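Action item from last meeting closed. Structure (308 res):
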């Protein structure tokens, strides 16, 4: 019987984790190289487009992936049920709005075109930025584009402004005769990267999820102690020099397991989710019945912290 059980474990399907070109995603490769997953089988599945990554989770093709608060809400009623299990990181100022130098101020955007990926974090942040400018969405014309395309349209002069994220944000300003007029540095607590796991994985593979989260934190400790080796591993995945990658990686704030407990228990966390829910409802992209308390669980990271 013991031999049979060992055989079943050996044939166990890997826990599938979706990753993209984004510094925190590369932490998994350090964990993998150092054997931090132990006997837990893990498959890192790389995507070139973030929306494909997210869609794959809710189609049941992944068990865990990187997302944001808003993405977790957007996809919550579009397939496999899933929950946020970790608030992983944030980068203040990593998202923002670029304006043409020919416009004297943000208020001059009235009646102008802004490129942005609709119903995404960038769209939500654009609305927050417009409010700070004394404008609303009805005052401008939104041109739908991916975040990379939004920057390209700005550079080509097809729009007067764009809402996007780094490195496209700085590139648009530098190459498109523009300037960054607003970033998330003015809006902490909203653009938080998270890990999302399917409810099936949470119910059936809870122990493995705790192992994976422990590996996530062990890899971060290794990176701090061995930066040269670690940045070389991670930079290669993104086609960057280790020096450039290091600068990008170090601009992120990575949340500890203890900080996660504080985040999940905070009123600010639920307030941010509630505001994003209202935004998505206003654009008719989710159902009103969506319960924000059903899109996250603090249990996995809490137990992973105890196992560290």
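Sequence:
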């Amino acid at each position: 019987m013991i031999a049979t059980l060992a055989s079943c474990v050996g044939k166990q399907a890997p826990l599938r984790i979706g990753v993209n070109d984004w510094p925190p995603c590369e932490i998994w490769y350090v964990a993998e190289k150092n054997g931090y997953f132990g006997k837990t089988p893990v498959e890192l599945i790389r995507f070139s487009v973030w929306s494909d990554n997210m869609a794959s989770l809710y189609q049941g093709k992944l068990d865990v992936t990187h997302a944001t608060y808003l993405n977790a809400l957007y996809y919550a009623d579009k397939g496999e049920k899933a929950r946020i299990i970790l608030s992983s990181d944030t980068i203040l100022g990593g998202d923002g709005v670029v304006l043409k130098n020919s416009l004297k101020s943000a208020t001059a955007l009235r009646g102008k075109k802004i490129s942005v990926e609709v119903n995404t974090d960038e769209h939500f942040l654009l609305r927050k930025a417009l409010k700070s400018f004394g404008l609303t969405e009805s005052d401008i014309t939104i041109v739908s584009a991916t975040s990379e395309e939004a920057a390209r349209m700005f550079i080509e002069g097809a729009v007067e402004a764009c809402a996007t994220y780094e490195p496209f944000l700085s590139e648009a300003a530098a190459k498109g005769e523009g300037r960054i007029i607003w970033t998330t540095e003015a809006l902490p607590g909203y653009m938080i990267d998270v890990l999302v796991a399917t409810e099936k994985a949470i119910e059936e593979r809870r122990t493995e999820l705790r192992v994976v989260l422990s590996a996530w934190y062990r890899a971060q400790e290794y990176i701090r102690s061995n930066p040269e080796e670690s940045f070389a591993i991670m930079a290669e995945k993104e086609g960057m020099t280790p020096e450039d990658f290091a600068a990008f990686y170090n601009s992120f704030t990575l949340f500890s397991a203890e900080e996660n407990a504080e985040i999940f228990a905070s009123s600010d966390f639920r307030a941010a989710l509630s505001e994003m829910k209202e935004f998505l409802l206003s654009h008719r992209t989710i159902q009103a019945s969506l319960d924000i308390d059903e899109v996250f669980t603090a249990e996995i990271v809490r137990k992973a912290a105890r196992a560290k």
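Note appended to the action item: The two ends are 31 Å apart (CA to CA).
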